[in-house]
Amino acid sequence: EVEMDQQLRPKLIDFHGVSMSKYFTDNWDDIQNFQARPDDVVIVTYPKAGTTWVSQILDLLYFGKTSPERQKTIPIYDRVPFLEIFIPSHPKGTELADQLTTSPRLIKTHLPVQFLPKSFWEQNCRIICVVRNAKDCAVSYYHFHRMNNIQPEPGDWSTFLKDFMDGKVVFGSWYDHVNSWLEKKETYSKLYVVFYEDLVEDSGRELDHLCSFLGLCPSPEEKESVLTKMTFENMKKDKMANYSTLTVMDQKVSPFMRKGKVGDWKNLFTVAQNEEFDEDYKEKMKNSTIKFRTEL
Ligand code: A3P
């Protein structure tokens, strides 16, 4: 803990053109040489897009029936290892993933497309990319910075928003991340995209789509059970899903399971910030056909 204390609030570094922090680059060789297995399922997101939500959903779909004790006793970050994380006195994400004996392995990453270990492509793994509108992502990421001491200091909201728009946050530009992952869909058929907004709007429908991508056929009872366990309210009070077991996060500052809504950005963006954001967004996304919903 002492060692950790000295390293909180890391600096942002420029890593091959992407803003990162050392906690996600210090283990780079192991990450790049990571050996995928053909049945691995990768959950890839820009931070705050709904990574934990989809991780929990997949864990329930694959193991909820066969080993229900898993969700009750093992924290989500051990069930679904975070590939690139490497913080002192904690096991590396790559080690946790290597040690998984369950099949398939569920592996989480925030890496931009050009950094994904090549083994996942070679093994033709299924990849689920969760995306969320930029405004809600920015707000959620801001609160996450405030409460999570392994993120750089966010400054105040207007400073953070500017950094977000400039891509000067950990894992780089939302715009580049989302655009390059979505482009990959055109050439890699085992990439499936889920919108956070769609999941909020109709979880049952999205669960069916996910299952058909994964080749799973849960019974109506199993599906009902997943739908109950994946709600915001249930995940918020679930110690194995809400990150309350991690000391680097101060949930008194802001809970990890914060609001779980579409459109919360309206509570933080000023009218002027919103106008500036929209104008900049149009420019940065001008080559994209993708439409995000910022309200339901
Ligand atoms: P908010 O901060 O807007 O509440 P990630 O897991 O990628 O870090 O994303 C975290 C965001 O997903 C948080 O958003 C969190 O509340 C939301 N989230 C987590 N579980 C959820 C659920 N079951 N339903 C809706 N939103 C959820």
UniProtKB/TrEMBL annotation:
<comment type="similarity">
    <text>Belongs to the sulfotransferase 1 family.</text>
</comment>
<dbReference type="Pfam" id="PF00685">
    <property type="entry name" value="Sulfotransfer_1"/>
</dbReference>
<keyword id="KW-0963">Cytoplasm</keyword>
<dbReference type="GO" id="GO:0006584">
    <property type="term" value="P:catecholamine metabolic process"/>
</dbReference>
<dbReference type="GO" id="GO:0006805">
    <property type="term" value="P:xenobiotic metabolic process"/>
</dbReference>
<feature type="domain" description="Sulfotransferase">
    <location>
        <begin position="38"/>
        <end position="288"/>
    </location>
</feature>
<keyword id="KW-0128">Catecholamine metabolism</keyword>
<dbReference type="GO" id="GO:0008146">
    <property type="term" value="F:sulfotransferase activity"/>
</dbReference>
<dbReference type="GO" id="GO:0005737">
    <property type="term" value="C:cytoplasm"/>
</dbReference>
<protein>
    <recommendedName>
        <fullName>Sulfotransferase</fullName>
        <ecNumber>2.8.2.-</ecNumber>
    </recommendedName>
</protein>
<keyword id="KW-0808">Transferase</keyword>
<dbReference type="InterPro" id="IPR000863">
    <property type="entry name" value="Sulfotransferase_dom"/>
</dbReference>
